[in-house]
## 1
Amino acid sequence: MIVRTLEEIINTPRDTKAQNWCSRRLLLREDGVNFSLHDTIIYPGTETLIWYRHHIEAVYCIEGEGQVEETATGKVHTIRPGTLYTLDGHERHLLRCTKRLRLICVFSPALTGGEVHDENGVYPAATAPEA
Ligand code: 9YT
């Protein structure tokens, strides 16, 4: 059994910081459960281009307010506490934050840790199969 707390992760290497967000990575690939689980904060007033070409991400909002815009269609979804969105089609999108968002995010396959978006909003694919 794995038991850990957010407090144990803050300001460690599992607390990954980018310009528009920070991601506290509670479970990673090295934990061997085939998904990763993150407690993510998105900073207000930001817009982030995201395109998880190699991953499926599920995002459950527990605090704040924002929008997701699908770039292929222009479709806009409001994000508020209690809203889930899942990028089951690897949708390229813009994530806008109007009120500091706290999001619980699950990635499959699991992130290895340290990933931040490249210029296309992509996280790299893991190089070896999961354990
Ligand atoms: C919603 C989203 O994808 N935000 C970017 C950070 C990501 N959730 C992560 O790496 O935890």
## 2
Amino acid sequence: MPIIPVAERTWAAVTPASTYLFGVETDTGTAPDTDAGDVRLVQWYWGPRLPEAALAEAALPPTPRQRSGFHDPRDIHELLPVDGGRRWGVPSLQAFYEGGVRSVELSFAEAVAGTDEIELVLRDETYGLRVGVHVRCADGTDVVERWVTVANEGAAPVRFGRLDSGSWAVPERSAYRCTGVYGAWAYETQLQRAELPVGETTFTSRTGTTSHRANPWIMVDAGDATEESGEVWAVALAWSGSWRLTAQHRPEGDLAVTCGFGHDGPSVHLAPGERLRTPSALGLYGDGGYGAASRAWHAYTRGHVLPAPREERPVLYNSWEATGFDVSESGQLELAARAAEVGAELFVVDDGWFGTRDRDSRGLGDWWPNPGRFPDGLTRLFDGVRALGMAAGLWVEPEMVNPDSDLYRDRPDWVLHHPGRRRDTMRNQLVLNFARTDVREWAIGWLDALVGEYHLAYLKWDMNRSFSQAGWPEAGERADMLWSEHTDGVYAVMDELRRRRPGLRIESCSGGGGRVDLGVLRRTDQVWTSDNTDARDRQAIQHGFSYLYPAGTMSAWVTDSPNPHTRRRVPLRYRFHVAMAGVLGLGGNLTAWSAEEFDEAAGLVEAYKAIRPVVQHGRLHRLGGTPGLTASAVQYVLDDRVVVLAYNPFSPDRRAPRRLRLAGLDPEAVYEVVTSEAGATAPVGSRRHGRTLTALGLILPSFLPNGPDYRSELLELRRVRTP
Ligand code: GLA
């Protein structure tokens, strides 16, 4: 029973490794001024799991620091600090009532408790606002889920400047360091780690999407965590629209992280009788360093987020890098024949198959096969694909329209726009307003028909521009709601499509990794990590990606050399070994590969299929180095199987470690090498104790100095004897 009552108005979310203690703060009588009736829901404790008998003693109000006539710091521990009363921090909830009244005043109404979920109900009686603060904790995970519901039971509309999913206090430490990712198109999920300055540090997206520029999660430690050890507090937001996450490092020394949907500017509108639920914010505490925190996120994503987590993702071939917009039946079938031969299991036709789409300036929105290119439709093409033993997939971009399209000529009012303002295009396209029910119905209609007619097993759902001039004239004072309701609409269409077509699998793409988050992963199966398919660049991207998201969601293609994005030449094996660390796919012009390359590729695809369950479902250990720059390795463990992929892009350092120390093994157990390219140092059939492998390590040829650039290797061990 993960949520347990501790004392009056005090509860604990008890997870395998942590305790999250919260409740209603009662007046201690220590306040110099009174705020009678003002309620504070507070987090008493968030850290290592406490014995049940100790829970009550931990639920004591901390002595407030530095109180004065100028400041009252108590809101740092609040689950939902409001803009109101004596609070000057970043509000998690800021409401504007009729007549310009602000300063929210909440009173506690009741707690509605279930076994793994509780709702703490608060009310602003004067204006009829009901606020539900929800805490949920599923069995077997260290992730605590929180969200907020608001219901307008008053007579006038309420507007919210900020309506976060909640605030999380990180316990007192003498310093705070933060880890997160930033990026850009073709440069996603770059890890950054820095001390949090005193002040407010905000990570945000204003694009209407999750965005490439930041990803909605943060990990905080006291400056002492490593990959293998140390306490880490993490917060992630499960949302695919604009978002905001602010870490407040107070001058008094405390730290709280508040996050939610939306960004500064647009407001949330709640008419009388309306109710709204925020997206979920997820908190995780662990004391095993970043590595264990990542593994806990991966387990949570597999156990509680992904719709079909147990399936193995197929090796797909995608035509984009080979053909661009130059799509034809014969050309695709030629690629399909090569793809099947090399071992692909799914053939995905990318952009260029529909409407008049022979370039990026026209056809988006006209979702029928290009009559010039496919006069008889796509049946022959996809029957051909299936005859080759592969499943069929198709690229779509449902939220977009080119002005040069039948759809736009017919429905110019369907795009985001403000009357009397320009409609700026990006990549020659405009954004369809998925907040509108008619747009959603149109999308579900053609998507369902397309999947049905061509028996599609897979859609790559793309989204290739940010919002601009984001107006919704018909919605009047609700217009700003498009910022969240667009995302709700995308979710609704995906959910309905999956409901109607249970066998369908979806890849989330937004110009590569612009829509990667725990919200979209609830209704998709994998994501297109980046349009940058250069293996070396990819290593850094995959490294940052792995902090939150499991390898089984990370699409990674092997494409041509030199790479079309970077012109870098990287050996085929290295390219494969990098892509094999996720969901392997192929994306190059296979018809131009030499016979040797082709044979080598076929062998590597086969090798991937053999290790696929371990990579896609196993526990990830990042084994050090700076991926893409210095020697590094990733390791996956599933039951008795251990897979290692090691890389050395180049080695100017003659003194770098030659041994790779493994992790996460049973020290007493014996492991046998079953696949090795390490030659004499780890021959197939050789055996080592877990402790030897983790404490001493293995000498890897690719880590030795004086070798060529781009050495990589695959090693597999199997636990053969347990103590
Ligand atoms: C985006 C995607 C690419 C490809 C193109 C097609 O950029 O990220 O993979 O699908 O669109 O236009």
